[in-house]
């Protein structure tokens, strides 16, 4: 997604072909191109949100992956095995992190997305009539 954003930014900021060369207008186009070649603030914000949501996803789902690996490698770690109480604690831990993932996604989108925030507040917040 980040690569696609960079490509679209380059496409939008591409200079238009002009028949006139070395005119004051063409120099200003070059100056504007160099200023616009960097990502604009909205695109940077989208990149930040994507990275943040991805990081939250990886961190919050790491316990589930670790639990899955442990269930495959530790013979007594099951519902009926020797470590069944440890299995129950592990499942609670995994579920807490998965719920935390959902909650943090809502918080991230509320902070960074104005349309999401407005809609959310219209649905669940105080409505002014």
From TrEMBL:
It comes from the Eukaryota. InterPro entries: GPCR_Rhodpsn_7TM (IPR017452). Signal peptide: none annotated. The keyword Transmembrane helix applies. GO terms for cellular component: membrane. One of its GO terms (molecular function) is G protein-coupled receptor activity. Residues 12-32 are annotated as: Disordered. It is found in: Membrane. Residues 1-109 form the G-protein coupled receptors family 1 profile domain. The chain crosses the membrane at residues 46-70, 90-110. This is G-protein coupled receptors family 1 profile domain-containing protein.
């Amino acid at each position: 997604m980040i690569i696609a954003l960079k490509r679209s930014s380059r496409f939008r900021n591409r200079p238009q072909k002009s028949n006139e060369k070395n005119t004051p207008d063409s120099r200003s186009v070059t100056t504007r191109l160099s200023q616009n070649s960097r990502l604009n603030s909205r695109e940077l914000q989208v990149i930040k949100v994507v990275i943040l949501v991805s990081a939250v996803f990886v961190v919050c789902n790491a316990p589930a992956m670790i639990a899955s690996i442990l269930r495959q490698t530790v013979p007594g770690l099951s519902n009926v095995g020797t470590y069944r109480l440890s299995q129950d604690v592990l499942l609670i831990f995994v579920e807490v992190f998965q719920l935390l993932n959902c909650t943090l996604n809502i918080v991230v989108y509320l902070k960074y997305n104005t349309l999401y925030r407005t809609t959310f507040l219209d649905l669940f917040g105080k409505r002014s009539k």
